[in-house]
Structure formats: structure tokens, C-alpha cells
Amino acid sequence: TRLMRNHDNLVPFDRTRRRPDPARLAEFTATARRLQHERESSIAIVDRLLAETPRGQWPSLAACEELLTNGALERLGQLADNLERDPGQALAIAELATRIADAIPDDAYPKVMLAQMRAHAWKDRGRALCYLSRHEESLAALEEAVRRLVPFVVLAHDLAVVNFVRAVVLQHLRRFHEAQALLAECRAVFREHGDWRLYGKCTLAAGNLLVRRGDYAGARDVLGPFVRRAAPEAQAIARLALGWCEIHVGDPEEALAHFSAAISFYRQLGWQLEAVRAGYGTGSAMLRLGRIDEAITELASARAQFLARDLVEEAGLCGLELVESHLLRGDVDEARTLASAIVREFTAASLNRRAVAAIASLKDAIAASSATPESVRSVQMYVASLRTDPEREFVH
Q: What tens digit of pLDDT does each residue of 93-113 get?
């Protein structure tokens, strides 16, 4: 609400004089009871149907009338939020949720509530796609969520939540100016609503934006002070980002300390996949410190866990650092075998053909005894750059 500039025109408002409309009050009470009943009954229904139905057939569940409720969507949202344990399953659940949300009749709930339900289903789908590095698809899903919310001014906070996720995705796509503008808008909305948790997350995202832009010193300036006052969840994410900052500015010892702290926080939070990512960072820092045997142990463990979760690109990037480690130790056969495996994995997953070609050329160079640790690192950095610049050519 806006205050009138002419304060003399303001009329005192006594809420005690206003009598609620009995019909609207009865409607509100009935809706609240209905939602509570849906919430309580949907947990068992959703869990049973998902357990009884093979994952490949989950889209067909959108035709089940008993799932066309707000309660069912809330339960699916809770399950889709579990990105750490099984990102692929989280995506399948989120895709089912968007099908159900769009199948709910337009007169089943108040329009504003229906928009909110549908938007959050699409937001969860976008988050899962982002987690799997399918960034263009993620952005499309999030833009669909925005489309559902924009007509309703009262859903400003919901819109900011979606835009916050959009800003993260835009960073992955190197659309930094758009991401920065969205983060500024989101911070203003969260501050206005007194949502200091998400306000802090926006600060964290701003630091990560600087990391992705390659401004590692700037990112340290933002995240260093933030990490000292952050809650465990935000501190874990900031520590991971700070670890990679230190890797890039040439202080692997400090990076190791940040990665170690991140692992501790992630394990306390139960975020197993993020702990694996911090373990990958640990191996990378050890490699740069010349602690080759320890680096191989950490990198091999992280790579195996990435593959177990079908995160082929991350497994490949980690594997290339492992190839470098084997070359430094003189294990040429191990390095060549691993490079060949990464080529097969990238090919089977239909990843960027430029990445496949670069790794294949590395494999041939190892076989010809012309590869060096420096050339492996060059290929690894090139493959990583294709995430945000997929048309970049490889320069030998």
C-alpha cells in the first residue's frame, strides 16, 4: 500500500469497526479446512503411486484425479527438493508436478492460488534442470513460472523466489548483466518482506556471479566477510566458492582449508552431492600442492560418485585432473585408459562434440608420449569453458 502525500486527507481506520463478511469468512474457513485435509491425505497417496509406478511411467500419473490437488503438489514439491540424493528422480517428480499443475481445472482454486501452485511446480522443474546442467531448458521452465505469476501483484515474493533461481541459471549461461539486475531486484523484494534468509542468499549469489565472471579477487572481497556471519547452509556454499577462488588466484593451501570446511558443513546438512563437489575441490588443491597420491585418492572418489549420479560432465572434468595426476606420477597407461573412458562417457551422453574431440586428441597425445601435465590442464580448462561458451574452438 502507498501512503497519500497529503496527510490531511488521511482518515483514521479502526479495524474493530469493520465487521467481516460472514459469507467470505465461511468460504475462507472452508478452503482452509479443505487444504489441510488435502495436505494430510496426499502424502500417503503420492508416495504410494510413485512407489507402485515405474519412473518411466510417472507422466501418466497426471491423469489420476486424486493427484489433482494442492496437497499433492505440495508433497511432490517436497520430494523434488531432494536434489542431493537423486537429481534425475527430482527432475522426474518436478516434471510430473508441472503436468499435474496444468491439469488442475481453472475453477478448482482461487486464481491467485492456482497461479502460485503452477509457478512453483515450474520453478522446481527449473531448479532440477539447472542442477543437471541443462541450463537452457531450466531457463525456459523458469520463464514459464514467471509468466504464471506476473499478472498477480500480491505474489511479488513468489516472483522474486523464481527470479532468484533465474539469476543463478543466467550466471551459468554467462548472461551476467541480466543476472546482476535480477539479483538487485530480488534483494529489494526480500528486504521489503523481511526475508533475511533469502536476502543473504542473494548476497551469496552475487559473490558466485563474480566467480563465474573470473573476478576471483572481487569474489573473495564479497564472500570473505559474508562467510563469517552466514548460517551453516550459506557458509557451506560460500566456502566452496572461496575454495575455487583460491585455486584460481594460486593459493591452494587456503583453498584446501575452505574445501575442508565446506565438506564438514555439507555433511552436517546431509548434502551429499555438494560434499562430493567439495571433495573434488580438495583433490584439485592437493594436485596443485604436489600431494599427488592424496590427490588421486580424492579425485578418483569424487569421479566415481559423479558417475553414480549420471553427472557425466563433472565426472569428466574431475577425471581430467586425475589424468594429469597420473601423468605427474608417471602412470602413462593409467592416464591413457582414463582419457579413453572419458571420451566414451562423453560420447554416450551426447555431450558437446568439441569436448569429445579435445579429449580424444589428448588421448592420442598420451598414446604418442607427447602429452604433458600442462596440456592436460589446458584441455580440462577448455572443456570447462564449453559450459558457457559451447561454440568455442579448441586451440592446441
A: 999 999 999 999 999 888 999
